[in-house]
């Protein structure tokens, strides 16, 4: 949400000319109405819902009125009759409005996660054969690149073929161009082979380090940084990062981005390092499987529960991880639970 004060927003936008508050807000609202997805840039959750309803042509419906009058927090099944009387509508009309509200998104950017992903293909294939993990490059030409060094007679034939008539262009210039092409081809083959060798070595080290992750899942992910792997391989961290960009590994657990084998860490109560992804997975399971939707935990309470399970993280870190997972605040989760129950 765009909840910063007007002065800060003007400063961020570089607006120095005095503008009346009403004019500035009207201009800002016009921009919000055009943004995609609908609701992006809203002041708060209620404003976000209203922008979505307006985009759907429902800005003057009962659903919009419910948002404006702030009755969403009262939406428990036993309160429907009371709310209907408060708004002067039938309970059946209230239920229809609730259906409209259930189709709204408290966090519009989550819609971007629903777009169709491009087809991904593996760069490495990992298999477990006779209790041993085997890593192979996936493309059939790996290790089979060859550079054919054309002999001089053939070069002359190529010169004639390229020019039709040797008298039209200096043969020496054409041969020089062929030598340059030969050098570029050799460099391309060498670079491709280096990339394949390096990718294979990275994959082999990742599988050796994260065997339990492959066998048991996220909870067994070991802390590992690209910098640490670079040091083990005697390579530059930037080279590792560049080679791994958009690379995937086909494993018994499915197609996985190679970046998922890396994670920062925290130190658990037992002194052992625990991967951040493991903590985030524990946080998500705690909310999804154990939380009472009518009485959701605050970030401080979640911090305490995770500490009891050996993950000593602060309230601020809980908030950061929760947002990274796309999980709303306690009040957001409570409101959405009530809407689902309606």
TrEMBL record:
GO cellular component, one term: DNA-directed RNA polymerase complex
InterPro entries associated with the record: Cro/C1-type_HTH (IPR001387), Lambda_DNA-bd_dom_sf (IPR010982), RNA_pol_sigma_54 (IPR000394), RNA_pol_sigma_54_core-bd (IPR007046), RNA_pol_sigma_54_DNA-bd (IPR007634)
Sorted UniProt keywords: DNA-binding, DNA-directed RNA polymerase, Nucleotidyltransferase, Sigma factor, Transcription, Transcription regulation, Transferase
PANTHER family found in the cross-reference section: RNA POLYMERASE SIGMA-54 FACTOR
This protein's record includes keyword Lipoprotein: no
Keyword ATP-binding tagged: no
GO terms of biological process kind: DNA-templated transcription initiation
Pfam families: Sigma54_CBD (PF04963), Sigma54_DBD (PF04552)
Ranges that cross the membrane: none
Record domain HTH cro/C1-type: where: 226-248
GO MF annotations, alphabetized: DNA binding; DNA-binding transcription activator activity; nucleotidyltransferase activity; sigma factor activity
Family, per entry: Belongs to the sigma-54 factor family.
Name of the molecule in the record: HTH cro/C1-type domain-containing protein
